[in-house]
Amino acid sequence: MDSRERVKITLNHKIPDRAPIDFGSTRTSGITTIAYNRLIKEINSNKEPNALPRMYDMVQQLAYPQSEILKLFNVDFIDAGQAFYESEDFWKEFVLNNGSKCLIPSWFNVLKDKNGNVIIQNDDGIILGKMPKSSLYVDQIYWVYGNSEKIPEKIDPSDFDKDVWAYTTPPPGSIDLFDKKQAELFKNSINKLYENTDYAIVLRFGGNLVESGFSIRGMENYLCDLYLDQSGVNRFLDTLMDDYVKKLNRVLELVADKISVIMFADDMGSELGPFFPQEIYRKYFKKRHSQMWSIVHEKSDCKVFLHTCGSVSELLPDLIDAGLDILNPVQISAKNMDPEILKKNYGKDLIFWGGCCDTREILPKASPEKIKEHVRQNMKILGKDGGLVFNQIHNIQPEVPPSNILALFEAAHLYGKY
Length: 418
Prior knowledge:
Blueprint: H1 3-11, H2 33-44, E1 55-57, E2 62-63, H3 67-72, E3 77-79, E4 91-95, E5 101-105, E6 110-112, E7 118-121, E8 127-131, E9 139-140, H4 164-167, H5 180-196, E10 200-206, H6 210-217, H7 219-228, H8 230-255, E11 261-265, H9 278-299, E12 303-307, H10 316-322, E13 326-328, H11 339-346, E14 351-353, H12 362-365, H13 368-382, E15 388-389, H14 402-415
Parallel strand pairs: 3-10, 10-11, 11-12, 12-13, 13-14, 14-15
Antiparallel strand pairs: 1-2, 4-5, 6-7, 7-8, 8-9
Helix pairs in contact: 2-14, 6-7, 8-9, 9-10, 13-14
């Protein structure tokens, strides 16, 4: 069974030969570049790697897993972003905070101040993000509507590009699909990736409704806006949706037959519960999620993937009703996210993409043997009768020992067979 066949069977709630494996096909299921460099060094022993890893996500410091690692771990998925900018001219060298090296997109305006802090600024000179010398991640420090008393009456869509997440978005998200030349690049690059590999392709779309509010308005402001400024929130969301609907239709027009999964993202939960009650989700977000996800289902055979961290079990019935197919990262350590209950209540409707290994306590701190047993238990529960894509819970962080990462994927092979 090849990867695409295995993935198709799994995503249609049937039983394949083994659970499909993901490693880095999304910005929430991969590995930080420091951890990746340590892993490569462990695997290659004293040998120099063939090439520096490409750190495509500057904020979270994530690397694209290279082809030899995807093959080593028998990975079944690939990020559509890996189809773009293969030329070394599009990359420049960058030194990480632990002294190891990688490549980053050459168009990023990345500077270091006199104290060694990394500064990210856009083409207008606005400082969008900062990574202190002592840190391992970039912090957003500019919110375009953050100091406004309320959401502006007139919203300029170009304002949505003025946050560090938007500025550092790698292809295909940063490609203008309505420019003939760029649209051709988009289509041809993904076609090439499809024809030259056997991976199921995951395309990162975003479609953020909650997180865009956090990035543009600031988290506290936006959560207050949901209660205090109904007209402003709807005006803001309608502006987003005008853009999302056009882009989503264009994506499907160009490459619907080449991709298996379209990724949406909207963090809606803390460790203890959703950021807002069901009535707020229904009031603002459900109809808009439903509109986007209906477009995917009506115009393609792709499955809708939603990344939302935390305790979101209260929202799952509405998300399913809106058209959700796949839940990620399945944060089983959060309140009311017990894997047995999730599988029992929602296993017929949802594919669980993740949930196999806790990345906060188990993966960085436990022994390889304990990690394998932890993975075995979770895969047995979430993978019963199919419906599971193997992945850890969110990205692998810098402090995770290479031996534990190897144990994680060894367990995937040991316990993923049906």
